[in-house]
Amino acid sequence: MVPAPGAAAVIAPHLDDASLSCGALLSRWVQDGTRVTSVTVFDGPPPQPVPVAAARFHAECGLGDDAMTVRAAEDDRAMARLGVRTVRFGLREALYRVTDDGQPRYPVRDRLFATPVTEEPELVVGVAARLAGCAEFAAADVVLAPLGIGGHIDHLVVGAAVRVARDAGRETWWYEDIPYVTYRDCADWTALVGGLVPVVAVIRVDTVGPVLSTTTENAAGKVELPTTSLAATV
Ligand SMILES: [Zn+2]
Questions:
Q1: Whether the predicted model's global pTM rises above the 0.70 cut
Q2: Ligand 1 centroid to residue 205 C-alpha, Å
Q3: Which fold has domain 7-232?
Q4: CA 13–ligand 1 middle distance (angstroms)
Q5: Burial (CB count within 10 angstroms: exposed 0-12, middle 13-18, buried 19+), residue 186
Q6: Which pLDDT tens digit goes with each residue over 25-45?
Q7: CA 16–ligand 1 middle distance (angstroms)
């Protein structure tokens, strides 16, 4: 068992990643006296008009174009329940990003998972700069960062930005990205993450699966956190 750090920051690409991938660990650290902050990078509102792929995804989730407001409220409740503070950068997630001429950068969902991080170098630099200027990031003894399992471009960007922004000697714990790590087509995920090793890992996929089903069904705001499904391993 690793002693709880004095301060920790979990860097979450989206508003559900901290609770889904690290909820149990965060809860335990808070109970042990750690000052824990969730830093969510991509929680900004969509552009107007809302890109077609984003609107379609909202509808699939049972949400409208105020999806980010609903998700933020959901995250507020989750983090309050865990006792975790929140910082949000307000940047646009991939489905909301547009090119310089106003076209959706990701017009179809499949591209979210098939784009190398090298295609968004300015975004990596921008997120790294935001992290470097974030007091909670600077004060953290341990930084939790996504491995990028599943290849979602936002998760890859955040992982790359953490590598740029962290100073030498800062402890970084890489966490397995839920839900992607539970997907069969992500079984060979190690090839995606450049030799990084997970520190925060799913210990029972058969437990996480049903919990995720429940969370998906209740995406409108009645989420039960999978706080008993994860463990920190070193
Ligand atoms: Zn995510």
A1: yes
A2: 18
A3: Rossmann fold (3.40.50)
A4: 5
A5: middle
A6: 999 999 999 999 999 999 999
A7: 7
